[in-house]
Q: What sequence folds into this?
């Protein structure tokens, strides 16, 4: 049975740097508050009209494909993770296929928010192990800056998120000591509403935190003026509750991956945690007894880029020579759903 290795990797972050200081123009916040609670110093925002989730994905994918020594027509399948798609439907996978001039290959969008990229890797790995495909483009891309509440009302969410994209080419390999060892996926929908964007949606306030829409007229449920006027088109997050769950599930899913392969934390050469919050990453590092050299963080520069955070961090760690051939790399993520996941691989 073939295994899957990362044959090429690429990232793209928009040019525009947005500092904590700049955010003070829009809301009541401070550099001190943001850095102390999250570690974030700045983030990138895509160009409002010229850049989209798909165009950023195209840039990251071009590099990943070139890096793998391939051309876009060599790709057999696309798995695209995002929570901020160009359109409500169709998904970004088909837009990427079109923009890159690929063959009429399958394109699948994954909606697992912060753990989207690790879920996407797991899905692609199964297609490769089954022998169905040889080269799969796996992408995580987000344009958060287009859908955040930049007033003081939305400050607990808007200061955290940033834009960017990362991509890998997952390729079939028979090389020993190379490629994905295992992936581990989990969910618990009991707290689905504490980190969510309810609208547009079909819930008609069945689950949401907001006003009752029982009196809405036909057609209004999906997205009404009322919803927009009362800021119900923005993400909602109970930050402290997310934090508490994340610090339990991150170490748990990393240990699950290690134990499944008879390994221990000291065997990890590089842990790439989803960049949710520097405090969460530091807590996980401490729990597992990992050194600073074993964990890569870049949330300070990019904020939380959700599905793009793991591939951007993985790419940057590799570019800086912090990941070498044969290294044991662990990817781990936790986020809205809740969903959480890990992947263990030899680089
Ligand atoms: N600037 C200044 N003050 C802010 C603020 C901001 N950007 N955002 C919230 N505050 C205020 C709150 O209004 C609150 O004020 P109050 O005490 O007067 O009511 C105070 O800061 C504390 O808010 P709280 O939400 O309890 O802060 P916190 O210490 O939990 O930090 C998060 C907030 C969001 C940084 C933190 O909970 C977190 O990171 N959670 C995990 C989120 C996450 O990882 N999400 C991604 C999903 S993977």
A:
């Amino acid at each position: 049975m073939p295994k899957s290795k990362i044959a090429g990797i690429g990232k793209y972050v928009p040019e525009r740097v947005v500092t904590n200081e700049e955010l003070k123009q829009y809301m009541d916040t401070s550099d001190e508050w943001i850095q102390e609670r999250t570690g974030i110093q700045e983030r990138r925002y895509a160009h409002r009209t010229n850049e989209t989730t798909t165009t950023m994905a195209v840039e990251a994918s071009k590099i990943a494909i070139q890096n793998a020594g391939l051309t876009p027509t060599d790709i057999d399948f696309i798995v695209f993770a995002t929570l901020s798609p160009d359109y409500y439907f169709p998904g970004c996978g088909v837009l990427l296929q079109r923009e890159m001039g690929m063959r009429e290959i399958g394109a699948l969008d994954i909606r697992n928010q912060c753990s989207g990229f690790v879920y996407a890797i797991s899905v692609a790995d199964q297609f490769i192990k089954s022998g169905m495909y040889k080269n799969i483009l796996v992408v995580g891309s987000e344009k958060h800056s287009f859908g955040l509440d930049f007033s003081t009302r939305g400050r607990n969410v808007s200061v955290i998120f940033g834009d960017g994209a990362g991509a890998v080419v997952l390729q079939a390999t028979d090389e020993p000591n190379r490629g994905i060892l295992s992936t581990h996926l989990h969910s618990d929908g009991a707290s689905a509403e504490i980190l969510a964007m309810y609208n547009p949606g079909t819930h008609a306030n069945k689950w949401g935190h907001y006003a009752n829409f029982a009196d809405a007229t036909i057609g209004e449920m999906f997205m009404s003026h009322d919803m927009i006027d009362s800021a119900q088109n923005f993400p909602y997050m109970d930050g402290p509750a997310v934090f508490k769950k994340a610090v339990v599930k991150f170490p748990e899913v990393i240990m699950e991956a290690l134990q499944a392969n008879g390994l221990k934390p000291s065997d990890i050469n590089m842990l790439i945690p989803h960049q949710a919050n520097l405090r969460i990453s530091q807590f996980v590092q401490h729990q597992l007894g990992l050194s600073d050299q074993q964990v890569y963080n870049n949330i300070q520069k990019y904020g939380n880029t959700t599905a793009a955070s793991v591939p951007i961090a993985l790419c940057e760690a590799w570019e800086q020579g912090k990941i070498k051939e044969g290294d044991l790399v662990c990817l781990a993520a936790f986020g809205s759903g809740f969903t959480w996941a890990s992947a263990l691989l030899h680089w």
Observations:
- The two ends are 18 Å apart (CA to CA).
- The domain at 3-173 is CATH 3.40.47.10 (Peroxisomal Thiolase; Chain A, domain 1).
- The chain has eleven helices and 13 strands.
